[in-house]
């Protein structure tokens, strides 16, 4: 199983970040955390890298269902969504929620993972350029 859902878009990085936030919101996700990896690597290590942002997305009803099924699932929450620049494009990736079920072995998480995966896939699909598909 691939642990990520990935698309590539031609939109510039900043535009892709804004569109990603909007797409997540449209699917019921809020962004709880934001990690600017590029700035962190530059400030802490003096290393340069491409724009790279990690958004911690949460859909409260789905998070509640997951936590009700397995309190330890918080170790795998929130759903990380990465927006990064690569070779003149912007890559947008989301953790495949099916990984929660695979990692925990908890069958009661399957419906939650299915719903979260469908919502994340819909969010990413809405960002795609014409003629592209999520991988």
How many domains is the backbone divided into?
Answer: 1
- Gross geometry: globular
What is the makeup of the main sheet? 5 strands, antiparallel
CATH names the topology as TATA-Binding Protein
Summarize the SSE layout with pairings.
Elements: E1 4-9, H1 13-26, E2 30-36, H2 37-45, E3 52-58, H3 60-69, E4 79-86, E5 89-95, H4 98-104, H5 110-125
Antiparallel strand pairs: 1-5, 2-3, 3-4, 4-5
Description:
The protein has 135 residues and is α+β, with helices and mostly antiparallel strands. The protein has one domain: TT1751-like domain (TATA-Binding Protein, 2-Layer Sandwich). The chain is built from 5 helices and 5 strands. The protein has helices at residues 13-26, 37-45, 60-69, 98-104, 110-125, and strands at residues 4-9, 30-36, 52-58, 79-86, 89-95. A 5-stranded antiparallel sheet has the order 1-5-4-3-2. A hairpin with a 2-residue loop joins strand 4 (79-86) and strand 5. Helix 1 (13-26) packs across helix 5 and helix 3 (60-69) packs antiparallel against helix 5 (110-125). The longest helix is centred in the last third of the chain and has 16 residues, at 110-125. The chain is globular, with a radius of gyration of 15 Å. The model has no long low-confidence stretch (mean pLDDT 93).
Question: Could you name the key traits of this structure?
Answer:
135 residues, TATA-Binding Protein, 5-stranded antiparallel sheet, alpha+beta
Would you summarize the structure shown here?
The protein is α+β, with helices and mostly antiparallel strands and 135 residues long. It has helices at residues 13-26, 37-45, 60-69, 98-104, 110-125; strands at residues 4-9, 30-36, 52-58, 79-86, 89-95. Strands 1-5-4-3-2 form a five-stranded antiparallel β-sheet.
């Amino acid at each position: 199983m691939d642990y990520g859902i990935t698309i590539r878009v031609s939109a510039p990085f900043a535009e892709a970040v804004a569109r990603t936030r909007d797409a997540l919101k449209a699917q019921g996700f809020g962004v709880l955390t934001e990690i600017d990896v590029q700035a962190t690597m530059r400030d802490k290590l003096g290393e340069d890298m491409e724009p790279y942002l990690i958004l911690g997305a949460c859909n409260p009803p789905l998070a509640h269902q997951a936590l009700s099924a397995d309190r330890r699932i918080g170790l795998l929450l929130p759903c990380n969504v990465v927006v990064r620049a690569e070779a003149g494009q912007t890559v947008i990736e989301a953790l495949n929620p099916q990984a929660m079920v695979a990692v925990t072995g908890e069958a009661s998480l399957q419906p939650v993972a299915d719903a979260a995966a469908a919502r994340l896939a819909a969010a990413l699909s809405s960002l795609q350029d014409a003629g592209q598909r999520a991988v």
